[in-house]
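A favour between colleagues. Tell me how you read the following sequence-structure pair.

===
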Amino acid sequence: MMLDDVIEIKKAEPDSQWRLRPCKKCRSENVAYEHYNGRGGAAWRVKCFDCGYTVDKGNTVRHDAQVNWNKDGKV
Protein backbone atom coordinates (compact mmCIF):
# COMPACT_ATOMS: atom_id res chain seq x y z
CA MET A 1 0.00 0.00 0.00
CA MET A 2 1.45 3.34 -1.07
CA LEU A 3 1.37 6.13 1.50
CA ASP A 4 3.72 8.59 -0.23
CA ASP A 5 1.17 11.42 -0.32
CA VAL A 6 -0.34 10.86 3.15
CA ILE A 7 0.07 13.57 5.78
CA GLU A 8 -1.84 11.76 8.54
CA ILE A 9 -4.34 8.97 9.14
CA LYS A 10 -7.22 9.51 11.55
CA LYS A 11 -9.29 6.61 12.84
CA ALA A 12 -12.78 7.70 13.93
CA GLU A 13 -14.22 6.53 17.22
CA PRO A 14 -17.51 4.68 16.57
CA ASP A 15 -19.45 6.93 18.96
CA SER A 16 -17.98 10.22 17.74
CA GLN A 17 -19.37 12.79 15.33
CA TRP A 18 -16.74 11.58 12.82
CA ARG A 19 -17.98 7.95 12.71
CA LEU A 20 -17.76 6.11 9.41
CA ARG A 21 -19.93 3.34 8.01
CA PRO A 22 -18.29 -0.03 7.34
CA CYS A 23 -16.75 -0.52 3.89
CA LYS A 24 -19.39 -1.16 1.25
CA LYS A 25 -17.10 -3.59 -0.61
CA CYS A 26 -15.93 -5.90 2.19
CA ARG A 27 -18.03 -4.71 5.20
CA SER A 28 -14.87 -4.16 7.26
CA GLU A 29 -14.90 -1.53 9.99
CA ASN A 30 -11.16 -0.96 9.49
CA VAL A 31 -11.73 2.39 7.74
CA ALA A 32 -10.10 5.74 8.41
CA TYR A 33 -9.62 9.25 7.13
CA GLU A 34 -6.47 10.03 5.17
CA HIS A 35 -5.25 13.61 5.02
CA TYR A 36 -3.03 13.79 1.95
CA ASN A 37 -1.27 16.10 -0.47
CA GLY A 38 -3.58 16.32 -3.47
CA ARG A 39 -3.11 18.11 -6.76
CA GLY A 40 -4.68 21.30 -5.43
CA GLY A 41 -3.18 21.06 -1.94
CA ALA A 42 -4.11 19.18 1.21
CA ALA A 43 -7.30 17.10 0.96
CA TRP A 44 -9.23 14.34 2.76
CA ARG A 45 -10.39 10.89 1.63
CA VAL A 46 -11.63 7.77 3.40
CA LYS A 47 -10.04 4.36 2.86
CA CYS A 48 -10.72 0.79 3.91
CA PHE A 49 -7.44 -0.63 5.17
CA ASP A 50 -8.58 -4.22 4.60
CA CYS A 51 -9.59 -4.20 0.93
CA GLY A 52 -8.20 -0.80 -0.15
CA TYR A 53 -11.54 0.64 -1.31
CA THR A 54 -11.30 4.44 -1.25
CA VAL A 55 -13.73 7.32 -1.70
CA ASP A 56 -11.67 10.31 -2.81
CA LYS A 57 -13.43 13.42 -4.09
CA GLY A 58 -10.51 15.71 -3.23
CA ASN A 59 -12.39 17.23 -0.29
CA THR A 60 -10.58 20.02 1.50
CA VAL A 61 -12.87 19.57 4.53
CA ARG A 62 -12.87 16.29 6.49
CA HIS A 63 -16.64 16.46 7.08
CA ASP A 64 -17.23 16.43 3.30
CA ALA A 65 -15.10 13.29 3.01
CA GLN A 66 -17.19 11.71 5.78
CA VAL A 67 -20.47 12.57 4.03
CA ASN A 68 -19.20 11.17 0.70
CA TRP A 69 -18.04 7.91 2.33
CA ASN A 70 -21.19 7.41 4.36
CA LYS A 71 -23.46 8.13 1.37
CA ASP A 72 -21.38 5.81 -0.82
CA GLY A 73 -21.59 3.09 1.80
CA LYS A 74 -25.39 2.89 1.88
CA VAL A 75 -26.66 -0.37 0.46
Q: What stands out?
A: The radius of gyration is 11 Å.
